[in-house]
Amino acid sequence: MKKYIYLFLALCILGAAYFIFPLKTEKGRVKLIDGKFELNKEPFYPVALNYIISVQSNQHSFWATSCKDYQPNFKYNFSDKQNAQKQLRAEMKLIKELGFNTVRLVGMGEAIVNEKNNNQLAIRAFNINTQDTLINLENDSIYDQYFNEINDLFTIIEEAGLKVIFLVKISPVTEDTKRFLRKFSNFFRNNTTLLAVDVFNEPLYFDKPEKEKKEVYDIVKDWRKTIKMYAPNLLVTIGLEGIREVFRWDPTILDVDFISYHPYEYEPEQVRNEIYWYGKYTEKPWIIGETAIPANNDSITYEAQRIFAKKTLEQTYNCGGVGYSWWQYKDVDWHKYHANFMGILSWEGQTLTANKDSVYGTIKPLANEFKNYNVPTKKDSCICLDNYYNYSNGKEFRIVGTILNEQQKPIEGAVILAWNENWTHSYHTITKADGSFELLGTYPFYHWITSAVKHSTIRGDINPDTARVATHIPTINLGKLKVEYLPFIKK
Question: Which of 22, 71, 196, 312 is buried most, with the most CB atoms less than 10 Å from its CB?
Fold first, then answer.
C-alpha cells in the first residue's frame, strides 16, 4: 500500500511541476549546438540589426514603441498603442526584407535604479513626446503588465519572421535587478522568438566601480544560474566593448553561452584587427553584437560604409564568429558625427515595404550587403592586417617590454594599454609569440595596464621625462612584466 501512496505523491508532484513549468515544443527555438546556432536542426547564422525600443504611456497604460529619435523631427505623430504597433510592424517587416533574421532590442529592457524611490527599478516612458514618466516596477501586477507589453512586441517581431536578442540592465550591486532577472526568465521561458538575453552592455564603460576578475567571474556565474533555473533553454550573452575588456571582464571567464563583441573604428582598421584577436583568443562562441562606421555620403561616402560592412562580415565569419550585428536601424541626431550616421536608413525620405507600408527614412547602399549575404560553405583566411599591433602607428612616444606568465614563459596575445596624463586617451597593442610588445602613441604615456585571457591584471605609472630616444622615438622599456594564471579557472 505504501508504494502506491508514494506513486500517487510522485504523480502529484509531476502534475504540479507541469502547471508551474508547462512543457512546450522547442520547435522554432534557436539552439547552440557544438558552438554554432541551429534552428529546427538547420544551421542558423544570426544577421542582426540593433533597434532602439522606447516606452510610451498615457494615464491608463504603457506600451512599446519605436525610438523617438527615429521619428521625423524627433516627434511622435501618434499617442496610442495601435498606431505604435502599426509602425513597429512596418519597420520589422522592412528589416526582414533587408536581409536580417534577428533584431537586437535595446532600451525597453534596461530598467533603471530609481534612487528617489528606495532604489526600486523603473522604466522610463514618454507621455506623447516628453519623457516625463518613471514606471516603477513595484509589484507583480506592474511586472505582468510590463512583460505582457514586451511579449506583444515579440509577437510583432515573430510575425515578421525575426528572432530577438533582448538587452536587459542588471546591476551587480542592486538586489532588485536579480529579482527582475528571475521574473523575466520565468515569464519568457517558453518564448521561442527570444534567441538570447543580453545581460550587460559594455561593462568597460558602464560597470562602476571597477571590479577584479574573480568578482566579475562570480557575478556572471550567478546571473547565468538565475536565468537557467527558470529558463534552462534560454541562451545568455553579454555585450563586451572589445579587446580592452580583458583587464576586468575577460571573455574567457564569463559564464555565458556566447560573447557579443562591440568593436568600432576609432583607429584605422581597428574592427578587422580586433576580430582577428577574437578569433584567436575567445574560447566561447562569439558574435559581433554591434559595429558600424558612420556615413552621410559627404564626410564619409555611402560606398565606404558599404565596403566596411562587406569586409567585416567576411572577417567575422572567416575568423570563427557565429553571427554579426549592425548598429543601428536608422540615423539619429545625437550631436556627434560618429554616432549620428550609422543607420541602415538615413533620416529623410520614405521607403515602402513589400506590402506598401510607408516607413520614414531612405535605405542606404550598405543594406545590399545584408540583403545579398549568404553564409559561405567554407571559411577563407582570417586576415592578420599589417597594422595589427599598432593601428595608428604613432611616432611621438613608445613603450616596450615583455609579458610573461608565472613560469617565466612568454604570453602571446596579451593586451597592454597606456593612457595620456589625464586618462582621457589611450592606445593598446598585443604581444607577439615571444611575449614582446611595442606600443606606439601620438602623445606621451603616463599610465599603463596589462593582462591576458585567464591571467591577472597588473598596472603602473611612468614618467615620460625618463624616456630615452630610440630610432627617433622617446621610448620607455618596462622590462619583463609577470601576470599569473587565475587560480579559480581550471587549466
Answer: 196
